[in-house]
Amino acid sequence: MEKQYTSAIVVDKRDLGGGIMELWLMAPDIAAQAVPGQFVALYCTDGSRLLPRPISICDVDGERQKLRFVFRMVGEGTKELAAKRVFESVSVLGPLGNGYPKEVGAYPLLVGGGIGIPPMLFLARELWQQGKKVSIVLGFRDANTFLVEEMAEYAAVYLATDDGSLGTKGTVLDAIKENGLQFDWIGACGPMPMLRGIKRLAQSKNTPAYLSLEERMACGIGACLGCVCKTAKADGHTHVHNTRICTEGPVFDAQEVEIG
Ligand SMILES: Cc1cc2nc3c(=O)[nH]c(=O)nc-3n(C[C@H](O)[C@H](O)[C@H](O)COP(=O)(O)OP(=O)(O)OC[C@H]3O[C@@H](n4cnc5c(N)ncnc54)[C@H](O)[C@@H]3O)c2cc1C
Ligand code: FES
Prior knowledge:
Blueprint: E1 4-17, E2 20-26, H1 28-33, E3 39-42, E4 53-56, E5 59-60, E6 66-72, H2 76-82, E7 89-96, E8 108-113, H3 119-129, E9 135-140, H4 148-151, E10 156-161, E11 168-169, H5 172-178, E12 185-189, H6 192-205, E13 209-212, E14 228-231, E15 242-244, H7 245-248, E16 251-253, E17 257-258
Parallel strand pairs: 8-9, 8-12, 9-10, 10-11, 12-13
Antiparallel strand pairs: 1-2, 1-7, 2-6, 3-4, 3-7, 5-6, 13-16, 14-15, 14-17
FE2/S2 (inorganic) cluster (FES) binds next to loops.
């Protein structure tokens, strides 16, 4: 798969509330190749922010011309991206990373927490198109949700909120238990404590699980080793138990990645 460095045009943007922004970029070369779970590196124009910001591909349009991103404004980089206007350009490198595997069970369970929720839309739609019976559990802080109605077009959606304002009060794991969900494959993306819980759940049920680790990154292209994590298997070439999340990931077989 060829990475493309392109100057993409902002074609649409929407404030989803609660500090969450949606951005659509015209980037046909990247959109044509993208698979769920991949991300892009978005470059800022302010020279003081040289490192790109990694953001997951939330979706692509039907003609595979445009990329959709949904992100939380947390610092200067994401605020600059959110301030972009329609017809302005953004430098993008992508698609990056591996994405979720193509072969999944007939009853996949997708789990997203916080800023790990956006890539679940692309994955849910692709699995629904393959005829899978998809369930999704989404974890939010409170009733400021996003993408829920759209996900419901492709899957049975269950919510967990920290404050109990919607769905199950507690974590996504509490929601899985409370709703008695049955599944034969798990795809997850979210904060590390959530991923650890999903890994334990998958082990206890002997179910395959694939976790997307959205840890901090620097170069995003495998050059700086700023994103390494530990793996169960040693690399055949270097004989070390390390792997780069940006290139070998961000999606890993839960059994092979050591996240505690
Ligand atoms: C593969 C990948 C995919 C991602 N996809 C998305 C996405 O679809 N939507 C989205 O909202 N965010 C996503 N992120 C996180 C996003 O890249 C960061 O929030 C962003 O780079 C922050 O840049 P900034 O300049 O605004 O903030 P900074 O000034 O760099 O940081 C501001 C604050 O955000 C925290 N922060 C920075 N990066 C992360 C991170 N990766 N995880 C948690 N906290 C972080 C910092 O600790 C700090 O407190 C993804 C990250 C990775 C590695
Ligand atoms: S971010 Fe530089 S090697 Fe992964």
